[in-house]
Design brief:
Largest sheet: 7 strands, parallel
Strand order of the largest sheet: 3-4-2-5-6-1-7
Number of helices: 30
CATH class of the domain at 9-246: Alpha Beta
Structural class: alpha/beta
Shape: elongated
CATH topology of the domain at 9-246: Rossmann fold
Radius of gyration: 47 Å
CATH superfamily of the domain at 9-246: P-loop containing nucleotide triphosphate hydrolases
């Protein structure tokens, strides 16, 4: 390890003087740089510091692009710039280089506060800008920070006060402006809006206005995007002073928006055949890197899950704004590194992201305007490389949208589909939705989100809501019918784009009472545990799951522009109940007849404590009552008392008493007979088990030894001996020791068994048993003599 040399005061002073002289020379080069005469081709031709040139060379940035040639010299001089250039032209370096140079020339340090602020409309684009800044600026003594949604806010809050260059999304930046204590904004030098037209869009209007109101007016402002206009209102909001326009000729011109190396084409196809065409395209382009754009995240999720189950033969990914930030970052990284892959995405991927070697950009749903189209197709053919794009238009969208593209001088070629290459997956989707209810639910949500996205579009000449084939489209998704949709308050008069991009929290706060106050349920602070326990259908994580699945058979799209909900679900409930062959008789039981008091809200802390106390409530209401239900579903208490009036109607008390005693006596006598019979059976069973045990003992003890009957049967042929009968005779030999009926419950006699001592003369001999020595009988007379002798013995 090389030790760092320690410098003395004279050496340090010399280094400081050298550094100051370099800064003066750099500042002089910047001021003397002639924008008209100079024509730089590489970064080293520009008046840049040696630290930046070294970082650019190490990152393989050598040559200048057109937008960099025109914008960097003006930005180094401190001018405000409004720049537009086609996608993939190097706009990120065009504003990062002036930021590093300005802070370096200003001798910016840690305690000077925030020097530059870069705002990006999407998280992925902000991450990409941060990674490029770290590469080219690693030789500067400056700090950079990235603040986006989905990350640890407390971690960012603790370190944001020491950041010199801050990159983030509008929402998280405004949150730090409001809550971070040590964030110093008074010295801000530069404000950059990447993809400025999207940042200035209606979705970020209020947030961006709040951010700009906290910034000093003397800053330098930079706006970069692929599509921009000279909107006076937008420029006034950002306080631009004499901005320089780069790449913007007029408001309606976009001739340089798309790269020349991009091959653009489109096909005309019915709405219900789009998924079939997409699947067929993927199957025929397995060796390509593809991005597929949908209009909503629900469609992305459904298409990814269904086509993944069909196994097209290529890796599939998805990316949309409703994913967790970790999943989004991981997907971007994997997709960038992959070679053959297909990514299903929404417009969150459409702007600024630099994915290498994209072969195809497929737009399944038509973009909302031409600017969105330009940004989508700009993911391919970046930095002069070749690429292709394909746009799917329905017959109702074709004529009007092509006119919009022609007005922007964008030419697209029409393609014809080879029917031999086309494959239908409608039957497979129907089978998948039938087998998996969750997949069916995703299909219903995808259908609803697409219908709503068409309904809220501003350009009604392109997106004709009335001509949508809803039934055919629902069947193409594998659904049995078009789900019911309620379109409330969605229209051009209400600001469709504002409503689409509005914050959910702001929409929730907008729900107020007639008095203008927020309801109690909205004012209550809900923790993450409250949200967890309020979830329903946790396998699909949506509280609308049952509402949609119950109305699957309905194919009516309900338009409710005034907010009146005149279409209730009563008709659907009645239809469902008629088809059921099993129903529960018992639903809600009225228990007020049992004397339960009405529930009244407590009026004081003492009454509230008493109501919540189980012991106190039992003192007032008595013991708890248990109920049982009969066959008709009516509740009854376990112990019920007869009323006094019913008792008198039954007759005299003495007669009822005699009748009750006689009934109980008869019942007891019947039970006594049963008990005696049961006891007798138990005794017999016990005796049988004891005898069985003794028999098993005899067999086991003499299984490998001489049989106990062999001494008495010596001389008898083996084939004439019945061993089982002999054993039974010997078992009966000791039967006198047991009671005949088996009623004796005492344990068996402790006298020695026959196999322990021989029995002679009816008595048990405790001495050694007598041994009889006999000759083997040879004739029948000898056998009869032996038998007689044994019997007499």
């Amino acid at each position: 390890m090389v030790k760092k040399l320690k410098l003395n005061s004279a050496q340090r002073k010399a280094l400081r003087q050298k550094e100051e002289q370099n800064l003066k020379d750099l500042e002089q080069r910047v001021q003397e740089y002639d924008l008209a005469s100079e024509k730089p081709s590489q970064f080293k031709d520009l008046p840049l510091s040696s630290h930046l040139i070294k970082g650019l060379n190490e990152s393989a940035f050598v040559s200048l692009t057109q937008i960099q040639k025109e914008s960097i010299p003006s930005l180094l001089k401190g001018e405000d710039v409004l720049a537009a250039a086609k996608t993939g032209s190097g706009k990120t370096l065009a504003f990062l280089i002036p930021i590093l140079e300005k802070l370096y020339r200003s001798k910016w340090a840690e305690f000077d506060g925030l020097g530059a602020l870069i705002i990006s409309p999407t998280r992925e684009l902000a991450i990409q800008i941060y990674e490029v800044l770290i590469k080219i600026g690693k030789h500067f003594q400056l700090s950079a920070g990235l603040v986006i949604g989905g990350k640890d806010y407390k971690f960012e809050k603790e370190r944001i006060s020491k950041i010199n260059i801050l990159i983030g999304t509008p929402g998280r930046i405004l949150q730090h402006f409001d809550q971070a204590v040590g964030l110093e904004l008074s010295n801000l030098q530069m404000l950059v809006l990447d993809e400025a037209d999207r940042c200035l869009d209606m979705g970020f209007k209020k947030t961006l206005d709040d951010i700009v109101s906290n910034l000093p007016e003397g800053r330098q402002t930079l706006l970069f995007s692929a599509t921009q206009s000279k909107s006076v209102s937008d420029l006034a909001r950002l306080s631009l002073t004499n901005p320089k326009y780069i790449g913007i000729k007029d408001t309606d011109s976009a001739s340089t928006a798309t790269p020349e190396s991009l091959t653009q084409s489109y096909i005309t196809i019915p709405l219900d055949e789009k998924l079939d065409t997409l699947y067929s395209f993927i199957k025929t382009h397995l060796k390509s890197k593809i991005i597929v754009f949908f209009s909503s995240s629900k469609q992305v999720h459904f298409a990814h899950e269904t086509i993944r189950k069909l196994q097209p033969g290529v890796s599939l990914m998805k990316l949309h704004g409703r994913q967790k930030q970790t999943a989004r970052t991981e997907t971007v990284y994997k997709f960038s590194k992959a070679q053959h892959v297909c990514l299903f995405a929404t417009d969150v991927v459409a702007r600024g992201l630099d994915f290498p070697a994209i072969d195809w950009v497929i737009q399944v749903d038509a973009p909302e305007d031409v600017d969105t189209y330009i940004h989508r197709v700009g993911r391919a053919a970046r930095f002069g490389k070749s690429g292709k794009s394909l746009l799917m238009l329905t017959p109702s969208e074709e004529e009007a949208f092509l006119k919009r593209l022609e007005s922007k001088k964008i030419e697209v070629n029409k393609l014809n589909i080879k029917q031999s290459k086309k494959k239908s997956i409608r039957s497979q989707l129907q089978a998948l939705c039938f087998q998996d209810p969750e997949l069916k639910y995703l299909g219903q949500k995808a259908f609803i989100s697409y219908i709503k996205s068409i309904y809220i579009q501003k350009d009604k000449d392109v997106f004709k809501f009335e001509e949508l084939p809803t039934e055919e489209y629902a069947k193409s998704l594998g659904l049995p019918g078009a789900p019911k949709i309620k379109l409330k308050g969605l229209g051009k008069n209400n600001g469709s784009k504002e409503l689409k991009n509005a914050s959910r929290q702001l929409l929730a706060l907008a729900k107020a009472n007639d008095d203008g106050e927020i309801e109690e349920t909205e004012k209550k602070i809900r923790t993450k545990y409250d949200k967890m326990f309020e979830r329903q259908n946790q396998n699909v994580l949506s509280e609308h799951y049952l509402n949609i699945t119950n109305n699957t058979n309905s194919s009516t799209i309900v338009k409710d522009m005034n907010g009146d909900d005149n279409n209730s679900n009563e008709d659907y409930d009645k239809n469902d109940s008629d088809e059921e062959f099993m129903s529960v008789k018992r639903k809600d039981h009225d228990l007020q007849e049992d004397g339960l008091p009405d529930l009244v809200a407590p009026t004081s802390k003492r009454s509230e404590k008493r109501a919540l106390s189980k012991k106190a409530s039992l003192n007032d209401k008595g013991n708890p009552k248990k109920l049982v239900f009969d066959d008709q579903g009516k509740p009854h208490q376990i112990y019920e008392f007869e009323d006094e009036e019913d008792f008198r109607n039954a007759g005299d008390a003495s007669d009822q008493k005699k009748e009750f005693i006689a009934k109980e006596a008869e019942d007891m006598s019947n039970r006594d007979v049963d008990d005696k019979l049961l006891a007798k059976q138990k005794k017999q069973e016990k005796k049988r088990k004891r005898q069985e045990a003794e028999r098993r003992a005899i067999v086991s003890d003499y299984s490998d030894e001489e049989s106990p009957v062999e001494p008495y049967l010596s001389g008898v042929p083996d084939d004439q001996i019945d061993h089982d009968l002999a054993i039974k005779l010997l078992e009966d030999f000791d039967r006198d020791s047991y009671d005949e009926e088996g009623d004796n419950e005492e344990p068996p006699s402790k006298k020695p068994k026959w196999f322990q001592n021989d029995k002679i003369g009816g008595k048990y001999n405790t001495d050694e048993p007598e041994i009889l020595e006999l000759e083997e009988p040879e004739t029948l007379e000898d056998l009869e003599s032996l038998t007689a002798r044994l019997l007499n013995q």
